[in-house]
Amino acid sequence: MSEAAITNGIGYGGQSTGNQYDAVIIGAGFTGLYQLHLLRDRLGLKVRVLERGDGVGGTWYWNRYPGARCDSESHSYCYYFNDEILQEWEWSERYPQQPEIVRYLNFVADKLVLKDDIQFGANVTAARYDEAANRWQVETETGEVFTAKYFITGVGCLSSANVPDIPGRDSFKGDWYHTGQWPHEGVDFTGKRVGQIGTGSTGIQAVPVIAETAAHLTVFQRTANYSIPAQNGPLSDDFKRWAKENTDEIRKTMHASSNGHPFLIADRKVFDVGEAERQEIYEKAWEFGGLRFRATFHDLLLDKAANDTAADFLKSKIREIVEDPQTAETLATIDHPFATKRPPIDTGYFEAYNRDNVSLVDLRKTPIVEITETGIRTTDAEYDLDIIVFATGFDAMTGSLLKLGIVGREGMPLSKAWEAGPRTYLGLQVAGFPNMFTITGPGSPSVLCNMPVAIEQHVEWVADCIEHMEKNGIDRIETTEEAMAGWVDHVNDAANATLLPQAGHSWYLGANVPGKPQVFMPYAGGMARYRSICDEVAAEGYRGFVFSGAGAPSNRQAAQ
Ligand code: N01
Asked: pTM of this prediction?
């Protein structure tokens, strides 16, 4: 049992030999670090974190591409559970850059003395539930096996790289990189002819930075995208002071908002105001920058006509910024409502197309035919390249979970249970997989929310649930098919009440990965509402879950 368990006197009988643990957590990003801290230091459990990278950071450990920066504002993209951490850490810019986020997570890991309980370079390839022993057996690539009562995944929603299988890809004689698997030593673009495929949030961040040093950058765009200027910059001392003095208020706002950001969505509707006032509101939001643009009106994601007003405003900005009319048209011909795909924010994205060394290829008109030894060939031309950058996104939400090789009761692989798409209860559990918790799993708000807020809520809920089980001598928790079916219906209803499903090619639907079942994966009912549902579930004795073991309610009653 860990020293913390002995000193705080709430050890729950953890195993202490070999690779036997009370809980195994996968991933040392925001989730894994906090989950380890709560289970080890609050509950006194023996915990091991298995992390495939060589350091903490999770998604941010891998996503080191040029321009990588978070779209959430710094003062909200951090843990709020610990006042000392909040007071000691200082962000430098309005949005944190990737290296700063990794520094922050190292700071937290060191402060809470977490690293000793994390095994780095541990790539999990199998996780099997042993029903007789009621333990999970988790195996790494090197054959090392860990067993634990609780199996918790903190693998991130956007960490399984999607590298499209374009014919000829492996014949390319130059270098190619996926943005989510970026070399730690960086890539020197100086004097190189670079081709970038993809114009999502990642691609839009990378273009202006790559363009600064490349001899030429050709951007291959399949779906044109909206983007709003981030208006990034150094944080003033006044702002930093304000953020530290108002942590309670900021936390309250983030918890009250539907997407976990430190601002609320306005109550007014688009047609509550006249045309001139609306344009002024959009103009101010554009000047202010960032994801707050989406919060200007309550009904932007609910009413197509309302959404059109924002879409038209943003398209007109593209036409204003981009000098070449044909390029502007290709960038502004957007086929989906604003924010139905995750809206990117940028620093000089559209401006980059005014440089002589940047050009755009419209893949809708001239699709890629193949990658050749020397570049990319479309139906119209061949582009000679030294480097190809795949900013092509992720097998989101399910990819990293399925890669763990999870097998539940009666030998049921998760891949089979999810053959027709992911099904969970609350995004937290899958029937047939007892004592397994999927932090920010499909069916939870996760990617529709400022991630640390979603993560803190899940991690705390799971820690409370495990504490309840340990205190009451409960061996197993497992959701039911019925609870899962009800939740899946609710997730679908929540998505269908919005315009989100109208972007038929969105990764929210799994549509970006060929062959992936198309199911709207995140919960669109809002983070605040989701939090209260989870709280109610717990308050009602964990409604929708079945406990078993000596201390389970059914057995307690029987013994009376
Ligand atoms: O990935 P994406 P991303 N041929 O899937 C194109 C988060 N994030 O890495 O739209 C040609 O959005 C694809 O085209 P299409 C954020 O949640 C956060 O940019 O499928 N093109 C699209 O243009 C974000 O939403 C931050 O037609 C192909 C692009 O590649 C999520 O991560 C920063 C193709 C992929 O866009 C994912 O963003 C960055 C093919 N075969 C990301 N396959 C911060 O907060 C794909 N594409 C900082």
From this structure: 0.95
